[in-house]
Amino acid sequence: MLRELVGESEWQDVREFVSPKIFKIVPFSTATRQFRKVASNYFDKTGFHEAVAERSQWLGRRQLPIKLTSRRTVELGDGATSGQLVLQLYFHQLFYGKRTLLDLRHARFGGINGKVEWVPHAFWTEWEPEFRLAAQDIYMGFYLDDDARFEAGLDVMGLLCAEDVFVEHFGGGEQHAVSFRMERFIKTFRKTLQRCKAAGQRAHPNLIPFGMYIVTLYDHLEHLGGEFDVRGAFFDAVDVEEFRIQ
């Protein structure tokens, strides 16, 4: 069912994460349950409205100028500003609130002059607690130069077998001028599948909606073009002192 829901052309790149390829590292039974969960969430109107309400509250608390609406009023303008905000939104959802709205595609945003309207489709998820913490560990570890925490996050996700692939993908330097290309991300994903399959590693099933989430981010930023300050977006979105391990 999930493959049919993402079958439209604008979701073409997401199909990579809902194809049989994922069974190479996520067992068939657990992957199938995850597919069904994401699909059932799509039709759960009450759950979606609750997810939107929760996200709106968190956006307000963190003072991110993004407004969730039922329809956008103007086309999205000012590419650099909107791109930085979407990057902040990506990190924000992984660190704050229980539910994540997965649709960050460029077509679902509008606004101008730093004010952004967001009209996501009803794809949402509530991460397993250990997966959410693992995602936080990966980014906290990477941006705070804590190798042990970075590796611990990958280990929980079942992706430690491809650590060097992720380090290469994240890139060196300060990540203040990063361009986004879907082709490069898909290449990284496939290399990860090959590496983890060879190692006999099993990945966490939440990797499926996580992959969908990342792909929609790439869709947005590749559409805008140019380079983005990913490190700056992370520190703007996340109060790192709140998430340090004591």
Q: Kindly state the number of beta strands.
A: 5
Shape: globular
Distance between the termini: 43 Å
Structural domain count: 1
Mean pLDDT: 87
Q: Which structural category fits the helices and strands?
A: mainly alpha
User: Could you give a short account of the major beta sheet?
Assistant: 3 strands, mixed
Percent of sequence in beta strands: 5-15%
Which ranges are low-confidence, i.e. pLDDT below 50, for 5 or more consecutive residues?
none
What share of residues is helical? Answer: 55-70%
Q: What gyration radius follows from the Cα positions, in whole Å?
A: 17 Å
Arrangement of strands in the largest sheet: 1-4-3
Compute the number of helices.
11
- Strand-and-helix sequence, N→C? HHHEHEEEEHHHHHHH
Textual characterization of the structure:
By secondary structure, this protein is mainly alpha-helical. It is globular and about 50 Å long. β3 and β4 form a beta hairpin. The strands form 2 sheets. Strands 1-4-3 form a 3-stranded mixed sheet. A two-stranded antiparallel ribbon has the order 2-5. 55% of the residues lie in helices and 7% in strands. The protein has one domain. The protein contains 11 helices and 5 strands, in the order αααβαββββααααααα. The mean pLDDT is 87. The longest helix has 18 residues.
Features:
246 residues, three-stranded mixed beta sheet, two-stranded antiparallel sheet, 55% helix
